[in-house]
Amino acid sequence: MTTSSAGSTGRREPELVGQTVVVIGGSAGIGLETARRARAEGAEVILTGRSPDRLEQAAKELGALRTAAFDASDLTALEEFFESLATPIDHVLVTAGRPYYAPLAEMDFAEARRSFQGHPMMMLGVARFTAGKVRPGGTLLFISGTGARRPGIGLAVIGALTAAMPALAANLALEIAPVRVNVIAAGFVDTPLSASLLGSQLTERRDELRATLPIRRVVGPDDVAALAVHLMTNTALTGATYDIDGGQQLVPR
Fold it and tell me: For the chain, what is the total number of helices (H) and then of strands (E)?
């Protein structure tokens, strides 16, 4: 085998050339990393988020097609955003929102209600508002978690939401076919959101995970991004939930 033939054999064509990916919550963390990976695979990206400054920085870095700053939990704003898209899109990733942890005695019921109405309603909204916008075979991807699958004090709200996401995905996959619907259930991911939730305990948590996870390292946003792009490109996958937690669920508490 010659050097030139070996080089040509080793090259891989980008998998998202000519496609458009919308990332809801695309200015940081998993969303930004997925947008970056999608661009590397040849896609155009549209980014949304709450912070105009962070969006502008991300858009410049990636060469985004466009951006829109709004709160994705505001269903009116979400609908208006999708109505404004003149270009057909291929994939939507939703990473917006943050988990709510609180024991019953300390629970802020208004905040708990917002959580219950937040991500599930956002999921339903995206599925409805993208009708006619997403090309057949494209996918809606929603980020969920694995950490609250085991019951624990303070996990009632997030546990219920974690359980709801797979059921929503399976039903929506039937209802809006041939557009595909999938959930990525992540464990701890080393992102700015995780840092804001853990504060001074972040380093201790990282060390604990490196010592106990079967993969012996912490899951990063690039790991989740790789899975997201795979779910975009593999058109046989729909109605399912895909765990990515480095084996966190296998480790006894």
Answer: 9, 7
Q: Are strands 134-145 and 89-94 parallel, antiparallel or unpaired?
A: parallel
Fill in the amino acid letter for 64.
A
Q: What is the reported pTM?
A: 0.90
pLDDT, residue 15, reads 93
Q: Which domains does the chain have, with CATH numbers?
A: 14-191+220-241 (3.40.50.720)
Cα(6)–Cα(223) distance, rounded to whole angstroms? 28
Containing H/E element for 94? strand 89-94
How far apart, in whole angstroms, are the C-alpha atoms of residue 195 and residue 216?
20
Buried b (16+ CB within 10 A) or exposed e, 89-110: bbbbbbbbbebbbbeeeeeeee
Query: Which range has the worst mean pLDDT, 2-6, 13-17, 223-227?
Result: 2-6
Q: Kindly indicate the confidence band of residue 3, based on its pLDDT and cuts at 50, 70 and 90.
A: very low
Sheet of 134-145, strand order: 66-69, 44-49, 20-24, 89-94, 134-145, 180-186, 240-244
Per-residue pLDDT reduced to its tens digit, 171-227: 999 999 999 999 999 998 988 878 777 888 899 999 999 999 999 999 999 999 999
Bridge partners, 67 (sequence order): 47
**What pLDDT is stored for residue 197 in this prediction?**
78
pLDDT at 1 over 60: no
Query: Please, which residues have CB within 8 angstroms of residue 24's CB and are 6 or more apart in sequence?
Result: 31, 48, 72, 78, 92, 93, 94, 95, 96, 122, 126
The pair of structure tokens assigned to 211 is 């010592």
C-alpha 11 chain-centroid distance: 28
